[in-house]
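The pair is set out directly below:
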Amino acid sequence: MTVLIPAWVNEALTPVEKLEVHQRGLRHKAVSVFVMRNNETLIQRRALEKYHTPGLWANACCTHPHWDEPALATAQRRLQEELGIIGLHLHHRDRVEYRADVGGGLIEHELVDIYVGEATASTAIVPDPTEVMETAWVDLDDLARQTREHPERFTPWLRIYLDEHMKSIFTSAI
């Protein structure tokens, strides 16, 4: 199935096929979600079938909006598709831009809307095995330390978020 995502081509926002966006390193829209439980954050290990960064740990979910899909709707959709999480109230925390080599000749050059939601004891997590091979709750400060000590275990974007944007993502009250 061809997936078109919003990317900038010659400074105009244009629908472009997702793989082509990453092959060309085009700047494109993205969404990232952190799910918190007090000072712990939910991380996922990406399924081995993923076309880039398979087997690496990432935040709860990341994705690209469909053409004309609002960022919040994208975040809610992807939480449900990847982790089976529904009904989580999300708060927009930041919009960041980064560019990172994700291997295999692919580049992520994203303008990312970042959302944070607080899980409750009744928040069900039912990962889609084609997307997620494992989940874990980890202390946020410990995760930041782990991404510095063992960067090869984590996606480039998670390392960037925790190294460069941690205060703007996590210091506002939920």
